[in-house]
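Section 3.1 - Work completed
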Amino acid sequence: MPGLDRSELVSELSTRSAADIRTVDAVLNALAQVAIETIAEGVLLPGIGELKLSQSPEREIRIPTGQTVIQPGRPELAFEPDSWIRSVLLGNVSVVDSPREPVPPKSLPELRLNPYSDTERAEPSTATSKTKIGGAPDWIQLPEVPTCCGQQMYFYGQFDSSIGEPYDLVDAGMLYVFVCEHCSRPHASIQYY
């Protein structure tokens, strides 16, 4: 649907999502505000792509007098479409032939890691730990699986801080690490015992 203006886009989104037009308009306004406030880190639009702000490199230019001057870099905006949308736009996949369905995140085999004491010989500690790579997260509270590129991120590992000082995170907790299978963006979150 090329050439949609804002009111047509809001109306189309309202129809497709069964959401009130005012709600859709408010969400678009909020999205624009978040994008402006966080553009320095990049703005991920799940299932659509990522908007980034970068600085073009400085370059030397020769002016009519024959002198060379340095032209400073300028801010540039770049948009990197989501892999599925890129495939559709390049004609590699048809939206009708390949509707977007959630793909389960990949799973790594579980590898338990044992903490070590602070001795020079690094003897195994007697403390028990839930630190591991792969497998499924051992949630302390409710599951919090993050999403990226329109899909759930896969669980990479967890680090248990309940083995004692100096590794405690505040009141002892678990640091969970996830990775996006599409763009390799990492995400970490903490839950406390």
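Second construct:
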Amino acid sequence: MVRLYTDELNIGYGERLIVKNLSVSFPDQKITTIIGANGCGKSTLLKAATRIISHQSGSILLDGELISKENTKVLARKMAILPQSPESANGLTVGELVSYGRFPYQTGFGRLSKKDYEVIDWALEVTGTSEFKYRPVDALSGGQRQRVWIAMALAQETDIIFLDEPTTYLDMAHQLEVLELLQKLNLEQGRTIVMVLHDLNQAARFADYIIALKDGEVVKAGNCEEVISHGVLKQVFQIDAEIGRDPRTGKPMCCTYNLIKGD
């Protein structure tokens, strides 16, 4: 089942096209990972799909409707995004930050309702951040902060969550912690997760569906067996990769690689 897809999408800045004639689908209730070299259009695609930026032509459809014509609050109840570098939360407590996720549901003077407080507490509990509720966000570790930002996205109560490089600046343990949390949200709550990752082995391990981009175009889209291959990685990253098997998951993994140098 597919609720969200793009059709012949073109996105650019000025006269320079970053994403070109792109038609991709994001499977519902699955984890989709977008991979590709820096500047290939991964983050641009996420921003356009969540209407942070506009697109030049083509269309992005959710539940059969153009997102460009959707009411902002209605759209914010369907999808949430965690950007690559979330804005500073200096001076805010964890509970205050997570409460911002309730904005799409607020009316009048924007006061939080009993339901809002219940959802905030639920989001904190699910992400394992309840103990930090009254602590300043900027007093937390990188992994803790990232979980708090995810809690804010969860408080939005959306079916679809976009994350742009959610493991950036985190050490190996915290990267795994965040990815396992997202996997849990997908498996236990049926959340559709769409994220950009740089680590190919993390993409293979956690994604149900992978979209490989190069210069704003799809090179290959499919499951990890189809995308994490010598030929696809050669075309996307210009590397000569040795593909093996993850001894714990049995999924393909990039064991080592060399750069393919030009003439």
